[in-house]
TrEMBL record:
Keyword Transport set for record: no
Source organism per UniProt: Sinocyclocheilus grahami (Dianchi golden-line fish)
Binding site for ATP: G285, Q286, T287, G288, S289, G290, K291, T292
Protein name: Kinesin-like protein
High-level lineage: Eukaryota, Metazoa, Chordata, Craniata, Vertebrata
A single Gene Ontology CC term: microtubule
Amino acid sequence: QQQAEQLSHLEHQREQSEWRKAEELRRREECVRELKLELDKERNKEPVVKYVTQTVEIESPSTLLQLSEARQQNEQLSEKLRNQRERCRHLEENVRHSDEVSCNLQHKVFKLYPFQNSSIACLYVKFPALQKRLSALPSTLRTIKTDYASLRSQVRNFSDFYGTAIKEAKKQVKANKDLIEKYRKEVALRRKYHEQLVELKGNIRVLCRVKPVLKEDQHEEGQTVVVTTDPNNESALTVLSKGKAKNFELDKVFHPQATQEEVSRVKPLITSCIDGYHVCIFAYGQTGSGKTYTMEGSVENPGINQRALKHLFNEIEERKDMWTYTVSVSSVEIYNEVLRDLLSKDGEKLDIKINPDGTGQLHVPGLRVMEVKSFQHIKKILAIARKNRITFGTQMNQHSSRSHALLTVTVLGTDLASGAKTTGKLNLVDLAGSERVWKSGAEGERLKEAQNINRSLLALGDVIQALKAHQTHIPFRNSRLTYLLQDSLGKGNKTAMVVQVSSLESNVGETLCSLKFAQRVCKVELGPAARKIETGGHNESPHSSPE
Ligand SMILES: Nc1ncnc2c1ncn2[C@@H]1O[C@H](COP(=O)(O)OP(=O)(O)OP(=O)(O)O)[C@@H](O)[C@H]1O
């Protein structure tokens, strides 16, 4: 700071001395100019001394006086000139001295701030380059202006181009919409004909429900969704496996967001049961794929079982002026090939026999069959069955998901006018998980369970295969499950299977197996449905004979 102060002081001194010097110089120049002017004036004056070329009389007193005056004047002027010269020399001396002082000061400044000077020098070096760049700026500005003008014109043109493109795109979208609409109509028409064909041939209807990805599934690995549904074709389903898309065509595919209400739209089948047909709805799929959810549902959001029964009682109510109905239910589970009554508290073991009444119908001695008067009553019965299934499951090592659960509703109708009697039957089946033994890694008791489940599902598969191939021998007796389903799966009955699939990549193997099984089931023709009705002692239906 001291140095800076000193420097500024010195600078100030230098500036003052320079200023003084300049002032002095200016004064001196002024003086010189004045003197010159005076000199010029003097020169221009008529010479006071006339050079006498003539012989003058020196001796004349006037001449002598004039001469002495001229000499005096001359001396005065010479004196003045000398003085001026002296002043001039003195001033020159001063200027030289100031120059020296200024030079010294500059030296001092340079010694005190060499870096400042270097940066100044540096600035001096940079200055030309900067100047050059500055001079180049106007041309750059000109280029930018030209670019800007061209861009502006492009933007103006773009709005026209954009408008045309939008028009074109709209046309395209409309054409696409028309195409989609046509496609939808085609699909609907195909479905209608397919439905008619299914009705005629008595095919097992196969519905597929894709389980949504739940929060708990998201923690697992392989949670990529590989199953997709087609919003324009409700029969199509695509599974992506090993980079290949596999397409499946079923009777109806429910996307993951389908509600319980939507899935329960099997009302025509329920109505058929009241009309005297044997109807069977069963859920098939790997463990955890949502079979119980679809069939039983939860208390707040019931599944097919409850909704179907509600519809059944509504229908009965509507027909009460012409028909009277008796509805009875029974519920069993099959666990490790053992049949248990879900409506009896002790869950006693049961067996299947041929009815001794000679009709050839199957019969389970000791099975609790409860007559039901209303939907509210049946709701209570369903709750008992569910509770017992859970209780037995807890006693038997959490087997509930490893057992098949059957709810059988028998509807006996009497036509009040003609006295004709119908016998409808509705089997609602929640099968055990269909996963393969090797995948479950089961051992001991679990292996036995898995083998039994597999055996009964295999038996179901064999029955399906035999029905599909129109074989004369249908192997119903190979498992308790098929044995029980015999009078619903046989000829002349109406059957629907809900195949449950997971959409996650980790389950893709099981999903493909379930869908392949579903496609085989699709092809099973049970023949035109036969109504079980007795009119005045005659039975209209061809007996669905046991094996
Ligand atoms: N569509 C769905 N929406 C919401 N949750 C579902 C759906 N499907 C299944 N779940 C849930 O997934 C879980 C497993 O379903 P569920 O018990 O019905 O499977 P499952 O196929 O019956 O299994 P298991 O063969 O072991 O009996 C349950 O918690 C159920 O609530």
